[in-house]
Write a structure and sequence with these properties.
It is a single chain. The chain is of the alpha+beta class and 202 residues long. The chain has two domains: 149 residues, Alpha-Beta Barrel (TIM Barrel), CATH 3.20.20.140; 45 residues, Urease, subunit C, domain 1, CATH 2.30.40.10. The strands form two sheets. A three-stranded mixed sheet has the order 1-2-3. The termini are far apart.
Length: 202
């Protein structure tokens, strides 16, 4: 268990299981409940690292719980099928909140779009749910939904535009044509490259 500062939110990160390949529980249900209960008393949020049987144990004792999946690269290629099965089962659990996150390794940064595609195409996640998981739901998981996560007056918003509709073709998340962060435009493709449905006149 370790305390860490993430995006302005105090969190207690609890390792309830070993890595994805091993998956065995490292804490008993009683220990996990005690850790989450103490964190709650201290006004801290809990983020639980859990696989296999540890997932159910964490949902029973830690609230709120947000499931997190493993990112697949060369050494983890064999885990992809397990990850897809996990997601396919998770999306059927009513009320379970699945946040978009990654244990990005060296060389993985900037390639999160591929995980969006994988979640929808192979994991059975609805495209809208995938988008929400990385935005408003991510903000909620960090306890920062009053600051980020939605495009509404008074909140900070980073905005992108895609060449394509991700609800119809999830691979369009690879084709970013406009990026604005903190009111500063970092990328702005020719207006002719913008799709009509983006609502930006050409």
């Amino acid at each position: 268990m370790q305390k860490q500062k993430e995006a302005g939110a105090d969190l207690i990160k609890i390792y309830a299981s070993e890595g994805a390949r091993q998956g065995g529980m490292t804490l008993s249900q009683e220990q996990l409940n005690a850790a989450c209960d103490e964190a709650k008393k201290q006004g801290l949020r809990t983020l639980v690292h859990a696989y296999r049987e540890a997932v159910r144990a964490a949902t029973a004792g830690c609230t709120p719980f947000f499931a997190k999946t493993v990112d697949g690269f060369a050494g983890y290629e064999s885990l992809l099928a397990m990850n897809h099965e996990f997601l396919q089962r998770a999306v059927k659990i009513w009320g379970l909140k699945i946040v978009f996150g990654t244990d990005a390794l060296a060389g993985a940064h900037g390639r999160n779009a591929e995980e969006f595609i994988d979640r929808v195409r192979d994991g059975g996640v609805d495209p809208t749910a995938a988008m929400v998981s990385a935005n408003s739901l991510g903000a909620e998981a960090l306890g920062m939904s009053n600051q980020i996560g939605s495009i509404v007056p008074g909140l900070q918003a980073d905005i992108i535009a895609l060449n394509g509709d991700p609800l119809k073709d999830i691979t369009s998340v690879r084709r970013v044509v406009f990026v604005m962060k903190g009111s500063i435009v970092y990328k702005n493709a020719a207006r002719g490259a913008m799709p009509v449905y983006a609502g930006i006149p050409s």
